[in-house]
Amino acid sequence: MTAPDHLQTKAIHLKNSWTRHCNKILFMSSTANESFPAIGLDTQEGRDQLYWKTIRAFQYIYKHHFHEADWFLKADDDTYVVVDNLRWMLSNYTPDQPIYFGKRFKLFVKQGYMSGGAGYVLSKESLQRFIEGFHKGICSHKSAVEDLELGQCMENMGVIAGDTRDSEKRESFHPFTPDFHLFGHFPEDNAYYQYSYYPIIEVSLTHIFFC
């Protein structure tokens, strides 16, 4: 997901780095750009348009590319993904399971919902149900809060919010910048504590090694 002004400042770096490890990469924007290329979703720009962009992006993928993949990753143009790690995590699941993954928050939705900032992954079955949710009127665009609304739709359609922690209960999706997660200190009244579905594990920097 990107914007016309971000193609040469943000999206280009994703195009030349981690997205090369995907089977297929689509850049979605409010307007089309044939030279980049970026697909135009015919929306406005702004935070209040994020959910519309996501809805229309998934509708486009369902119409044109649904049978070309088993898993569908939505990420913004300031996100970095280690695709090999993502493939390893997804290898424990099958695309016909109604499940989706990301950084799980716990407020507002009973089973929790995935942070848009960390990106999220829908199985093939989950994408099918997302599209059906709007077709049947079970899901709707009630709010511009993209990740929360998508999470509510997932729950209404019986899609499970998956656990993306590793065998040592460490998170694998992170909604903020690396320096925030590495060097930030989270007081217990911090909103991140209040939102995070799983306990936040903080470690001493003496246990972190850089190569």
TrEMBL record:
One Pfam family matching this protein: Fringe
Keyword Cell division found: no
Chief localisation class: membrane
Domain Fringe-like glycosyltransferase residue range list: 15-159
InterPro entries, sorted: C1GALT1/C1GALT1_chp1, Fringe-like_glycosylTrfase
Pathway listed: Protein modification; protein glycosylation
Annotated membrane topology: Single-pass type II membrane protein
Catalyzed chemical reaction(s): an N-acetyl-alpha-D-galactosaminyl derivative + UDP-alpha-D-galactose = a beta-D-galactosyl-(1->3)-N-acetyl-alpha-D-galactosaminyl derivative + UDP + H(+)
Top-rank taxon: Eukaryota
Alphabetic keyword roster: Glycosyltransferase, Membrane, Nucleotide-binding, Signal-anchor, Transferase, Transmembrane, Transmembrane helix
EC number: 2.4.1.122
Subcellular location: Membrane
Keyword Magnesium: no
Record field: transmembrane: none
Cross-referenced PANTHER family: BETA1,3-GALACTOSYLTRANSFERASE, GLYCOPROTEIN-N-ACETYLGALACTOSAMINE 3-BETA-GALACTOSYLTRANSFERASE 1-A
Membership in a protein family: Belongs to the glycosyltransferase 31 family. Beta3-Gal-T subfamily.
Protein name in UniProt: N-acetylgalactosaminide beta-1,3-galactosyltransferase
Organism from which the protein derives: Staurois parvus
The organism's taxonomic lineage, starting at the top: Eukaryota, Metazoa, Chordata, Craniata, Vertebrata
